[in-house]
Design brief:
Length: about 325
């Protein structure tokens, strides 16, 4: 009688020999070399994507800090020191994180990596537009944003030299020995001269698509709503009405775009909610402001539309009757 364990061990040894034979790859095969090149390109793309995601996260964090700083401003004459500090923070973001993003996107299709840095870009546009509103009472334009994100930068030529030398160097593997062809001196001089030319300044930019610009502006409405409610608590009763007029203009502009995409539609819904809160707050200040002490106004406005929004709706219905 045959030993079943011995038969199983024999089958296992056969499978192991087949697996070892199947894993043997001929590196000199053109198809293998082609797929090695594909692997290198994909790894390079994924690494770049991860770096852009990390940079975008840093831009988001610093932009939020700038927005929190700007929320300390109230009144028609904001503190110049806070504005200068906010501008310094924005310039730091541009000259560090956003400059690194621009270098990563150099000679690349920006739309290929747009989803990687889109959150940070939108948060930065929100911070810049909030700064421009507090300083100039107007929106920042797309041209102004793009101008701030266009840089003159120099690049290291070491990578370029390595790539060109690797193209001129052929490696043959025979019996485990490697042999590299010698590169002519004239070709080395050409490479060195080209590398010196690469040290010159080159223009790079973080491309700002119009959709990203609109999405960043849509996020601004939430900050303006907080500004309107917060200014009441500090005794400024004019800012809510200014913010209301500004948000109404923004809403009319966004509505004119029509159905531009799911994300813009979602942001437009948030814009309507922010505008409704500011309009209800302005109604409370205009009609019932004399009934409520000034030190209690911010508590009434912050309590939500359930307390005073019903009065607004009831009064509007009575006017219709």
């Amino acid at each position: 009688m045959q030993n079943p364990h011995g038969h199983l061990e024999k089958l296992a040894a056969q499978r192991k020999r087949k697996a070892e034979a199947s894993t043997t790859v001929d590196e000199n095969c053109p198809a293998v070399a082609m797929f090695r090149q594909y692997q290198l390109e994909l790894d390079t793309k994924h690494d770049k994507h991860e770096r852009l995601v990390k940079l975008s996260r840093d831009v988001t964090i610093e932009s939020k800090r700038t927005i929190f700083l700007l929320q300390r401003l109230t009144g028609s004459s904001p503190d110049i020191k806070i504005l200068e500090e906010a501008l310094e923070k924005l310039k730091t973001i541009e000259n560090t994180k956003l400059l690194s993003i621009a270098k990563e996107l150099d000679q690349e299709d920006p739309y290929k990596f747009l989803r990687a840095y889109s959150p940070g870009l939108q948060e930065y546009i929100e911070a810049v537009s909030f700064y421009h509103y507090l300083k100039n009472k107007k929106l920042v334009t797309l041209e102004e944003v793009q101008k701030d994100l266009t840089f003159k930068s120099s690049f290291s030529s070491v990578d370029g030299i390595d790539n060109e030398l690797s193209q001129l160097t052929t490696q043959k593997t025979e019996d485990g020995n490697s042999d590299k062809t010698k590169i002519p001196d004239t070709q080395c001089k050409v490479i060195c001269n080209e590398s010196e030319m690469d040290k010159e300044l080159r223009e790079v930019q973080v491309h700002v698509p119009p959709t990203e610009y609109f999405l960043g502006l849509a996020d601004l409405t939430g900050e303006l709503m907080r500004l309107a409610v917060g200014s009441v608590g500090k005794g400024d009763l004019d800012t809510p009405f200014q913010v209301r007029d500004f948000l109404q203009l923004m809403q009319s502009g966004f509505v004119s775009f029509g159905n531009c995409g799911r994300e813009i539609g979602r942001k437009l819904s948030t814009l309507r909610q922010s505008l409704q809160k500011v309009e209800t707050a302005c109604y409370t200040l205009q009609v019932r402001g004399s009934e409520i002490p000034k030190h209690m106004l911010v508590d009434v406005l912050s309590s939500g539309p359930s307390d005073y929004g019903s009065n607004f709706e009831n009064d509007m219905a009575a006017n219709d009757d």
